[in-house]
């Protein structure tokens, strides 16, 4: 189970790093090299994004990546083939990230079966409210998959408890209103928000949206279990290439330890 893996990793590390890749951008070959860099740096979990035409939770960097991958013809078959290959090669758990339109078109049962067969350990579906995820989450549990739900700073205590009710693996704590990419200031309001999430669930907490630097990572120690780095990693790959990307990941993982 994904939660068991996370808790095992936390026995030797105070905080885990989860990285992100948009499958098909810049290319599948470059995605593979990204994963190798993640492994070598010590990344603990990876979310693989299935490109979608309207990724409403994503900022400009990821929107461009999604659109580019789709223009190149990235198909569901390519995504699951890539995940299958990656799950066989790398030890860190792979989590699906995407939008419900894609899942709906596949069908809940078929999606869960295919994700499980490809070696995925769970899913993050950014635009699916928990009330509408009950059927999908039920299929997921029969396949051993973790439905990972999102909490936000605007959620009331009652809403946080409701979100936690059917979640598994970990909780994705969205650090702020808006889309991915913009720098988030980690201040006492964020720490207080994490504390509210903690009261609602016993699951590990992962903070994402705007985590960009080793200093951000250090500030999260003792508050969350997982730091999620997405846009900053992709920007580094595009601007500084593989060697810069590798060094950036290493600096993040050193901050974790």
Can you describe what's shown?
The radius of gyration is 17 Å and the shape is globular. Residues 177-181 have low confidence and may be disordered. Helix 5 crosses helix 6 (108-117), helix 6 (108-117) packs parallel to helix 7 and helix 8 crosses helix 9. It has a single domain (2-256), classed as Aldolase class I (TIM Barrel, Alpha-Beta Barrel), CATH 3.20.20.70. It has 257 residues and is of the alpha/beta class. Strand 6, helix 8 (157-164) and strand 7 form a beta-alpha-beta unit. The chain is built from eleven helices and nine strands. 50% of the residues lie in helices and 15% in strands. It has a nine-stranded parallel sheet. The protein has helices spanning 2-9, 28-41, 60-71, 76-89, 100-106, 108-117, 134-142, 157-164, 188-200, 214-220, 231-256; strands at 16-22, 45-49, 94-98, 122-125, 146-148, 150-151, 171-174, 205-208, 226-229.
């Amino acid at each position: 189970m994904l939660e068991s893996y996370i808790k095992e990793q936390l026995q030797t590390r105070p905080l885990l790093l989860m990285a992100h890749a948009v499958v098909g951008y810049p290319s599948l070959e470059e995605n593979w090299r990204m994963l190798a860099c993640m492994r070598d740096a010590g990344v603990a979990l990876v979310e693989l994004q299935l490109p979608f035409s309207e990724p409403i939770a994503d900022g400009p960097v990821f929107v461009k990546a999604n659109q580019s991958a789709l223009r190149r013809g990235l198909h569901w078959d390519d995504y699951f083939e890539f995940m299958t290959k990656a799950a066989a090669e790398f030890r860190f758990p792979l989590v699906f990230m995407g939008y419900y339109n894609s899942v709906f078109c596949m069908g809940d049962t078929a999606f869960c079966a295919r994700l499980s067969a490809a070696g995925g350990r769970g899913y993050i579906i950014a635009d699916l409210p928990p009330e509408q995820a009950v059927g999908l989450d039920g299929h997921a549990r029969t396949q051993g998959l973790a439905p990972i739900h999102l909490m936000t700073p605007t959620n009331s205590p009652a809403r946080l408890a409701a979100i936690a009710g059917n979640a598994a693996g970990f909780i994705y704590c969205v650090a702020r209103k808006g889309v991915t990419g913009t720098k988030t200031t980690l201040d006492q309001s964020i720490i207080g928000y994490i504390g509210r999430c903690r009261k609602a669930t016993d699951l590990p907490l992962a903070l994402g949206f705007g985590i960009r630097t080793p200093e951000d990572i250090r500030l999260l120690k003792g508050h969350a279990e997982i730091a999620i780095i997405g846009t900053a990693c992709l920007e580094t790959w595009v601007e500084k290439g593989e060697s810069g990307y590798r060094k950036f990941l290493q600096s993040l993982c050193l901050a974790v330890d």
